[in-house]
Write a structure and sequence with these properties.
Length: about 475
């Protein structure tokens, strides 16, 4: 096995080691390839920690000023894209501290880490980074929901079949269907905001596992870094990845909902349905069949839901049997978190683009309505005359059977034929077959009547505040 003959020079943990490290082990252990994204959070956390040490007199104010100056120079390098990662920079913490020692004196830079562990450092950076990404996703989701509300309001007059078991069931408004998904996404927004409350707690000042020996002011650091409060047990604070797991669970919830929304639109975009037409912006063609227009944007949304579920299940499987407190296995929480953020962020923006640009074909929706879809209305009409519903349900079923026997739509049965089935049918029974009448009858809160849908739109808008 090839080994590096030099000790682990420059690494934060290298002092007790006299031998080298296997190059493959170095690569296997390193996280700099992905945790470099947290350069800003790591630097800001280090400045807050050094400031607290200066307040306690652990380092001098002059040393703190020099550390802060150096760290801000390092931050400028990252932002300008000129920071150079070196072979022994195993993670973002090592890289920043190494570079700090090159910008200012190594003696002063060596005081930065006084009383601090990478265990607390890494989880502080993760929480700060995820907090900001959650806020960005919140804004993207609000934008998507505003488009849902706007289209529901603008296209409220379009009627379409509502489905159960993918079989035509009852007439509904297109807006009602759209809002059925909208309220699922609104629940996701509520969950995301709840998740943020638990993400935004500070572990900084907890040490490796048992606390800080210099009585560092944890609350001062938490306030400087924008945390809402502290994690109160040092052992739990450094080893907790529930905040990552909860975000992955949230992402799985959201992607489950976006997948079902996408599936509906995939079906509605087929030639057989033709309810909607996808914009070319989110479609692709066939390499063989020139007539094809494939809803690839929607299919990718549906497919990436499985990716989100897998990230969640994988991390939970990794964590489930870990002993207290920090274990290197927890490094495996980084990549699922980063991937989930990208998957969800990209997905909500693609979904917004698809919905903003698709065309609705109300004439195809209306043509798909069928007189059988008001069979329940037929039963309810008799119910309003005092006939028990169980009896009216059976009577309506006989009307369906008669229609099938004669091979004609149920709406074409004559008044005499209806009365032959049951004499209690009123003379205006055929008015039931007006689809707008059927839709407007569902006027209770949450229903598909125009007034109910308009109320839902206002409720949804209020949820976005």
């Amino acid at each position: 096995m090839a080994t590096n003959n030099a000790p682990a020079e420059g690494m934060l943990w290298g002092g007790r080691f006299t031998g080298g490290i296997d190059p493959l082990m170095h690569q296997y252990n390193a996280s700099i390839s992905y945790d470099k994204r947290l350069y800003k959070e790591d630097i800001l956390g280090s400045i807050a920690f050094a400031r607290a040490n200066a307040k306690n007199g652990i380092i001098s104010n002059d040393d703190f000023a020099e550390i802060e100056r150096g760290l801000r120079e390092v931050l400028k390098e990252w932002e300008a894209g000129t920071f150079v990662i070196k072979p022994n920079d195993e993670d973002i913490h090592t890289a920043n501290e190494r570079r700090l020692g090159e910008v200012i004196s190594k003696d002063i830079a060596g005081k930065l880490h006084t009383g601090r562990s990478r265990n607390e450092q890494v989880v502080t950076d993760m929480r700060m980074w995820l907090r900001e990404r959650i806020r960005e996703i919140d804004g993207l989701l609000v934008d998507f929901l505003k488009v849902i509300a706007a289209r529901a309001e603008a296209e409220i007059d379009y009627l379409m079949p509502g489905y159960t078991h993918l079989q035509r069931a009852q007439p509904v408004r297109f807006s009602h269907w759209l809002l059925s998904h909208g309220f699922a996404f609104a629940s996701d927004l509520e969950r995301l905001r709840e998740c943020l409350k638990r993400v935004n707690k500070s572990p900084l000042g907890c040490g490796a596992l048992s606390g800080n020996v210099f009585n560092i002011d944890r609350e001062m650091m938490a306030k400087e870094l924008g945390f809402d409060g502290l994690l109160w047990n040092s052992m739990q604070a450094v080893s907790d990845r529930d905040f990552v797991t909860e975000f992955l669970q949230w992402g799985s919830f959201f992607m489950q909902h976006i997948s079902r929304w996408a599936e509906d639109l995939i079906i509605y975009s087929t030639t057989e349905f033709g309810f909607i037409s996808m914009s070319d912006l989110y479609s692709t063609g066939s390499s063989l069949m020139p007539q094809k227009k494939n809803p690839d944007g929607l299919e990718l949304l549906r497919g990436k839901a499985g990716r989100a579920f897998g990230q969640m299940a994988g991390l939970m499987s990794t964590i489930k049997s870990l002993p207290s407190t920090y274990n290197k296995d927890l490094q495996e929480s980084w990549e699922p978190m980063l991937d989930q953020v990208k998957t969800v962020s990209d997905s909500v923006q693609i979904a917004n683009g698809i919905l903003s640009t698709l065309s609705v074909r109300p004439e195809r929706m209306l043509a798909a309505l069928d007189p059988f879809m008001v069979a329940t209305d037929l039963a309810e009409r008799l119910t309003k005359l005092g006939v028990p519903f169980r009896e009216t349900h059976h009577i309506s079923g006989r009307c369906v059977a008669k229609s099938e026997e004669l091979g004609i739509p149920m709406s074409e049965l004559t008044l005499e034929q209806f009365k032959a089935i049951d004499s209690r049918f009123p003379d205006d029974i055929k008015d039931v077959f007006k689809y707008e009448t059927s839709v407007e009858a569902k006027s209770a809160k949450g229903g598909t009547a125009r007034s109910s849908v308009l109320e839902q739109i206002e409720v949804l808008k209020a949820m976005l505040a």
